[in-house]
């Protein structure tokens, strides 16, 4: 049995999602923080290939454990990596340890506001938008703003008194048409602020009018044969169209806050804790709590909040939660419903869900029996069964335009295929393509045989089809006296509805649930197994008919030839003498003549 703490098991359980990974040594000290478009591939690459640089080889030798935080996009991963490196100062990170931060766009709190890029957030009432992962995006946005709206670039104090006293004179920017001259009172405050309102919309991502302006400019330049200038405009359009407005990782409006969410199953709860400082995520931690009998999510989360805030010495006066919980008197509880706060809560929930999935993957590797028991218990609960379905059988019909109707029965034991127990059925009593009657025949034959041979019966039968196929199967169970002794369900392909006997309303399982995945795997395996047998029968029938179409060659002769030569191709290539050894010279000549 593998060690659940081994690095191989930790890597195998990582998700294929964007996020940030953290390497720790045996003493629990942080070694390195990195970002990834695909966490599993990126972390695996450290261990799957020989590292080119000596520093990286030393790092890999020291890695004892891996932690990760899942985010929505690669852009978010880049921002979160920056925050964590500045907070944790890992030994092997060099590039982002300085205090240089990502750029923002500032709309200055002034009578005639300036719009400019900055890396410092000053709380003077100014508006800040961002952060941006690329200065190129910031410049493109500001170029767009300046090309559409003429704004001042000087840093004069444009108070009403100083303008009316004639203290300032217009500069070259005014003569170039880049500024409307508010310093000499040539532009009204109201008109300037209307432009600023439009600029806010552009920065927030409402580019519709601006994009129309750029596209018309591009067409105009192309019409004048100025293709290089048109291409530059096109590059700006592409960047703006691909620009991501919001980041859930950093938001200057959200100050020091703790975020808690919980995901739970039958036996455990998984609580994620995100700590935000000045709008940036500086910590993510998920803890697993074993449930006591009938313990609710509210009770588990209340315990986890106390423990996690004490463990990480959090003094935040505000907490974001998915539902109301009693906390300390001096702490404000917020239940976000929409906007940036809601996105932060969803990010925390996503990390709790991924942590739970990782634990399941690790358990599957290190303790398969526990994994199987958990899945069986989950299926019993989801499908309202009286017993855990350790033995499941699934039936599927295959026929094309009524030819060679066959059926397949596949068997799963402890949630895994038991291929030695698979069975094929050639439909005997049904004429033409009748799925209902075929299903009735096959189910009857299967369980009549099991009863006669005193073989163990399954706990669950899955029928590939809706209410019609399920009713036909039930008739067979009634005849055999097995109604109520074996649970039976039908699965319809279109919306994956689960049908129960005598219940007209289907059950819809969560598309991500393990119960539905096992039922889908059963259905797909039955279809694959059945269609393979059906193709083989069709091929055999086609081969036999090709040989039998030769005058003087019957079914027995055709079978005799195939037994000896294995295929029609070899029969066609055979000499008259070799054919005669099997079927005699007279028939050998007829066969040879028909193929040549």
TrEMBL record:
Residues forming coiled coils: none
Keyword DNA damage: yes
Described purpose of this protein according to its UniProt entry: The UvrABC repair system catalyzes the recognition and processing of DNA lesions. UvrC both incises the 5' and 3' sides of the lesion. The N-terminal half is responsible for the 3' incision and the C-terminal half is responsible for the 5' incision.
GO molecular-function terms, A-Z: DNA binding; excinuclease ABC activity
A Pfam family: HHH_5
Domain GIY-YIG stretches: 16-94
InterPro entries for this protein: GIY-YIG_endonuc, GIY-YIG_endonuc_sf, GIY-YIG_UvrC_Cho, Hlx-hairpin-Hlx_DNA-bd_motif, RuvA_2-like, UVR_dom, UVR_dom_sf, UvrABC_protein_C
Example GO biological process: SOS response
Keyword annotations of the record: Cytoplasm, DNA damage, DNA excision, DNA repair, Excision nuclease, SOS response
Protein name (database record): UvrABC system protein C
Organism: Flagellimonas maritima
Domain UVR: 208-243
Alphabetized SMART domains for the sequence: GIYc, HhH1
Subcellular location(s) per record: Cytoplasm
Transmembrane segments: none
Family designation: Belongs to the UvrC family.
Description of how the protein assembles with itself and partners: Interacts with UvrB in an incision complex.
This protein's GO CC annotations: cytoplasm; excinuclease repair complex
Domain UvrC family homology region profile: 263-473
HAMAP family: UvrC
Keyword DNA repair: yes
């Amino acid at each position: 049995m593998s060690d659940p703490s081994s690095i191989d098991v930790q890597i195998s359980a990582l998700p294929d999602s964007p996020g940030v990974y953290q390497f720790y040594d045996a003493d629990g000290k942080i070694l390195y923080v990195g970002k990834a478009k695909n966490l599993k591939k990126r972390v695996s690459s450290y261990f799957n290939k020989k590292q080119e640089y000596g520093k990286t080889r030393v790092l890999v030798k020291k890695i004892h454990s891996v932690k990760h935080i899942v985010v929505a996009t690669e852009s978010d991963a880049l921002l979160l990596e920056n925050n964590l490196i500045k907070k944790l100062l890992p030994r092997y990170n060099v590039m982002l340890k300085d205090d240089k931060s990502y750029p923002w766009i500032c709309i200055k709190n002034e009578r005639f506001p300036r719009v400019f890029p900055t890396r410092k957030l000053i709380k003077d009432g100014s508006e800040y938008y961002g952060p941006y992962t690329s200065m190129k995006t910031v410049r493109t946005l500001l170029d767009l703003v300046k090309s559409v709206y003429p704004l001042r670039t000087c840093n004069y104090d444009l108070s009403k008194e100083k303008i009316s006293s004639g203290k300032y004179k217009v500069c070259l920017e005014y003569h170039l048409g880049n500024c409307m001259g508010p310093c000499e009172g040539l532009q009204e405050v109201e008109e300037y602020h209307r432009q600023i309102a439009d600029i806010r919309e552009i920065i927030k991502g409402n580019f519709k009018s601006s994009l129309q302006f750029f596209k018309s400019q591009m067409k105009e330049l192309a019409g004048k044969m100025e293709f290089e200038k048109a291409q530059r405009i096109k590059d700006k359009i592409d960047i703006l169209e691909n620009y991501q407005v919001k980041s859930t990782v950093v938001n200057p409006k959200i100050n020091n806050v703790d975020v808690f969410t919980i995901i739970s199953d039958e036996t455990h709860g998984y609580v994620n804790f995100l700590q935000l400082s000045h709008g940036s995520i500086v910590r993510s931690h998920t803890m697993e709590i074993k449930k006591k009998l009938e313990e609710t999510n509210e009770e588990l989360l209340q315990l986890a909040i106390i423990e996690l805030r004490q463990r990480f010495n959090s003094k935040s006066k505000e907490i974001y939660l998915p539902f109301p919980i009693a906390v300390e008197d001096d702490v404000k509880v917020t239940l976000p419903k929409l906007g940036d706060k809601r996105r932060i809560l969803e990010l925390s929930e996503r990390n709790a869900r991924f942590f739970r999935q990782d634990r399941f993957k690790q358990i599957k590797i290190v303790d398969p029996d526990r994994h199987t028991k958990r899945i069986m218990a989950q299926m019993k609960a989801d499908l309202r069964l009286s017993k855990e379905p350790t033995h499941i059988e699934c039936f599927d019909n295959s026929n094309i335009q009524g030819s060679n109707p066959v059926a397949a029965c596949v068997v799963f034991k402890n949630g895994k295929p038991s291929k030695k127990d698979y069975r094929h059925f050639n439909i005997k009593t049904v004429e033409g393509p009748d799925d209902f009657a075929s299903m009735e025949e096959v189910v009857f034959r299967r369980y009549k045989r099991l009863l006669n041979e005193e073989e163990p019966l399954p706990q669950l039968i899955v029928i590939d089809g809706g209410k019609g196929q399920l009713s036909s199967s039930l008739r067979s169970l009634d005849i055999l006296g097995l109604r109520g002794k074996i649970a039976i369900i039908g699965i319809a392909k279109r919306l994956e509805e689960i049908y129960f006997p005598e219940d007209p309303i289907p059950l819809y399982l969560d598309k991500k649930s393990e119960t539905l995945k096992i039922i889908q795997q059963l259905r797909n395996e039955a279809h694959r197994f059945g269609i393979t047998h059906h193709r083989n029968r069709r091929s055999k029938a086609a081969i036999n008919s090709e040989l039998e179409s030769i005058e003087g060659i019957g079914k027995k002769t055709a079978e005799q030839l195939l037994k000896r030569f294995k295929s029609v191709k070899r029969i066609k290539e055979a000499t008259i003498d070799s054919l005669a050894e099997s079927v005699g010279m007279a028939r050998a000549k007829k066969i040879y003549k028909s193929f040549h």
